[in-house]
Backbone:
């Protein structure tokens, strides 16, 4: 469902999954659907996003539409008996996420949120090493993610109707990574800087506490082109460059030389999401162990809480004339939540 950047990336990834093929695509624009089908070899092109939900040739649906429509489109697929993979976030808020999970549970269907940090091999390796005590007890997670964009009203990142904004498009990835290491988060405070018009944020910073008192400091923004995370423990730390694009990490143990962690498989998060979804489907699972429903609920609740408590400020770069619109200088991950 959808024909944007993530849909194209997922279609290319699906072609590498044994036993899987692209059966159909749906878009609000029949012309875009037909062009997408020609490009990726889909058998059917539907002139509506929900077309694949009722297509008898479809077993499972990937929801790649803007996040304000994730709930509507995923629910349509589930109610039609299709298994569903949703580009993160699962839904715009916790209430919607709970409804989708209940719909999947009632119908014994697989429902999975495609959280980028949880599917890349080097990210999974880092978490395994943390679980094995490589850095001792986890004390904190510090992460930053930036889209590398100058302000451009025409870009989806700055379009409230398409679910734009730093917290909506980028913050969910950081919160997902933090909950992976720290469990359910208690949001202690947050701040958001607003673009002109005050409809979307260009920066969001979150301070949260996880299990055992460990803390998370998370910052996402439109401008800097950055993606890094540091997981610090009582006996060392792991530094990761990248989120869904990471291939390398560095393990620092107290009193030892740094140890490079690398995975040759690459960092195509869409491919690994497709492989995990296919594995769960073939094994008859309704939830992925990498992103179970409880984690999707915890993530949605954390995002809701950030929106509730965040201090709202005008972006000083725009007030001083910096960062004038120059067109997009990069691409942001789609996603989002309620504003």
Residues:
């Amino acid at each position: 469902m959808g024909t944007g950047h993530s849909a194209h990336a997922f279609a290319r990834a699906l072609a590498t999954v044994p036993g899987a093929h692209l059966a159909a695509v749906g878009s609000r624009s029949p012309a875009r659907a037909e062009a997408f089908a020609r490009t990726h070899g889909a058998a059917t092109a539907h002139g509506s996003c929900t077309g694949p939900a009722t297509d008898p040739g479809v077993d499972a649906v990937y929801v790649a539409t803007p996040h304000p429509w994730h709930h509507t489109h995923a629910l349509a697929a589930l109610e039609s008996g299709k298994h569903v993979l949703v580009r993160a976030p699962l839904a715009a808020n916790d209430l919607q996420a709970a409804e989708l999970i209940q719909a999947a549970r009632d119908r014994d269907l697989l429902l999975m949120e495609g959280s980028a940090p949880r599917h890349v091999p080097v990210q999974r390796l880092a978490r395994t090493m943390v679980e094995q005590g490589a850095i001792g007890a986890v004390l904190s997670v510090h992460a930053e993610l930036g889209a590398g964009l100058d302000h451009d009203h025409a870009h989806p990142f700055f379009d409230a109707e398409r679910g734009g904004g730093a917290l909506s498009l980028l913050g969910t990835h950081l919160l997902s990574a933090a909950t992976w290491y720290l469990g359910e988060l208690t949001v202690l405070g947050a701040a958001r800087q607003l673009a002109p018009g005050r409809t979307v944020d260009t920066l969001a910073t979150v301070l949260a506490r996880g299990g055992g008192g460990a803390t998370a400091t998370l910052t996402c923004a439109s401008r800097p082109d950055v993606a890094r995370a540091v997981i610090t423990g009582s006996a060392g730390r792991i530094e990761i460059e990248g989120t869904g694009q990471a291939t390398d990490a560095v393990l620092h143990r107290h009193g030892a030389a740094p140890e490079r962690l690398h995975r040759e498989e690459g960092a195509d998060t869409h491919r690994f999401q497709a492989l995990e979804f296919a594995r769960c489907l073939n094994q008859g699972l309704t939830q992925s162990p990498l992103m179970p429903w409880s984690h999707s609920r915890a993530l949605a609740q954390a995002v809701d809480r950030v929106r509730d408590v965040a201090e709202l400020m005008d972006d000083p770069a725009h007030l001083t004339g910096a960062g004038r619109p120059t067109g997009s200088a990069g691409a942001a991950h789609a996603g989002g939540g309620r504003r």
Summary: The chain has nine helices and 14 strands. The domain at 5-116 is CATH 3.40.50.720 (Rossmann fold).
